[in-house]
Amino acid sequence: MSGLKRTVFWTGVVALCAWVLVPIWLIALGAFGGRTGVFRWPKSLWPADASLAALQTFLAVEGVWPAMVNSIIAALTCMALSIGLGAPAGYALARFSFRGQNTYRLLILLTRAFPLAILALPLTVAFIRVGLYDTAFGVGLVHTALALPFAALVSASLFQAIPRELEEAAWVFGCSRWQAFRKVVLPLALPGIAAAAIFAFVISWNEVFAASVLSVKNRTLTAYLLTVLAESPLHFRFAGGFLLILPSLAFIFAVRKYLFAMWGIANR
Amino acid sequence: MKRTQSRALPYLLLAPSLVFLTAIFLLPLVQTIALSFSESGVASLGNYRRMVSDLNFGLALCNTFLLVLVVVPIQLALALGMSVMIEKIGRGRDLVLWVWTIPLGVSDLAAGLVWLAILQDRGYLNSALYGLGLIDGPTAWLTYETPGTLFLGVVLAEIWRATAIVLVILVAGLQLIPKEYREAAEVFGARPWTIFRRITLPLLKPSIQTALILRTVLAFEVFAVVYAIGGTNFPVLVGEAYTWQNANQNTGVAAAYAMLIVVISLAATAIYLRALRVPAEQQP
């Protein structure tokens, strides 16, 4: 690239980075600025009187802590179930050829064409009947429907990438199928599966509609924020928004190595 | 013994997820259909009639479609540009990629709140405009009286939040294209733009298709972003479903809305599958 071209190119890259980062910086200012910060006019881009007090006040508001705990419970449920159910399915898809394989793949692809969260509507009735309504676990179950197909496809290709010969060698040396899986295959697949698990966590942590429909008192953080949105002051909303973003930053950083491989896989 | 075991094994491994998806995906789907077509247990079209005659219905339908039609093409173009840029970056590629994919982890509700912080009356946009001497003081952009700027605000927030998912799918797709094709074209003197149009774009078609399907289905589900920015000033379909379920306690009409969204999503998927058909020999 020539000098001018290079400058234009990097200006574009930096501008796009700023496009992503500046809004996050601004809501952080909103979250740390508190009540006085919200009414300051005109606003400055530097934290003039930022303090932790605003976030502390937010966390002290009744219902915020329980909502966070519920979010975590739902997300952990979603994570455990989507991997626990999805990874075995992925292994089956990767290592066996059997009748019905394509039907199963079709079912998984079908989930992609549906707005799944909408299915929470009839589930309220079913959940009330079995006592899962208004529980974080119940919300986690619905979120699993969002994350499970993803987990199955990702783990299928993770397992596919591990040479079958490794497993067969272990059998030759006297390992049972399960032992060979545990000692040879699993360690190799584990980092990728961990990334998929983190992704399932994020999917659940961020979901709003199903969580709001399926709970009344035991709301997740997103559902809680949604219901109090209309009557809560601005600084309260900004604190909530910032708190929602914070874990995502860490999670995306944690899975960055696998992000593209995972999506490449899941969308083939 | 060993043989039958290994024949049953794949089914045993699939069974748990199959049972789960039946219970939480297929069954509710059937139930949503049933719910939408019945009123207090009797088959009727009442829910649909109430939905269509609802004051917000036309507006919600219009807003949702407008949003999808504006947001999705911009996101595709932007993500295409970004993914081509990524290919050119040498050092610092990983850092740039991480920054560009951060929104992937941001919830739609949080994205709405982020842009609320920027666009509210005393927000950062107005402060900047005031600094430039363009406005005299705090100005409202997100009210019922300013539907145009409210719409723009939602568009900005959606583009900010959800371009990352298109980007990730496209970058993953680009990695699958053999470098030799482009190198060969270069040898024969093709210009970058020609290479992009004649080689990259056609080979990227499967990824573009997936990205469009996923993004469109999700865009028809838009709700929390809008709610955080504009409250109920900007009705959208899923927001109406939420209102009918939670505020009006009427699952029937909510289910009718849900069915409408499902049908639109499926229609969009079918259109993409047809319009961007990938010849069998080109499928990975």
In short:
The complex is a heterodimer of chains A (268) and B (284). In chain A, 78% of the residues lie in helices and 0% in strands.
Biggest beta sheet attributes of chain A: none
- State the shape of chain B: globular
Number of strands of chain B: 2
Indicate the radius of gyration of chain A in whole angstroms: 23 Å
Mean pLDDT figure of chain A:
88
**Helix-strand string of chain A:** HHHHHHHHHHHH
pLDDT under 50 segments of chain A (min length 5)?
none
Distance between the first and last residues' Cα of chain A: 34 Å
Name its key features.
heterodimer; A: 268 residues; mainly alpha; 78% helix; B: 284 residues; 13 helices; 75% helix; globular
What this model shows, in words?
The complex is a heterodimer of chains A (268) and B (284). In chain A, 78% of the residues lie in helices and 0% in strands. Chain A is mainly alpha-helical. In chain A, helix 3 packs across helix 10 (221-228). Chain A is globular and about 75 Å long. Chain B is built from 13 helices and 2 strands, in the order αββαααααααααααα. Chain B is 75% helix and 1% strand. Chain B has helices spanning 2-36, 46-53, 57-88, 93-101, 108-119, 124-131, 147-176, 179-187, 192-203, 205-220, 224-230, 237-246, 251-275, and strands spanning 38-39, 42-43. By secondary structure, chain B is mostly helical. Classes of the chains: A mainly alpha (268), B mainly alpha (284). Chains A and B meet through helix 1, helix 3, helix 4, helix 5 and helix 6 of A and helix 1, helix 3, helix 4, helix 5 and helix 6 of B.
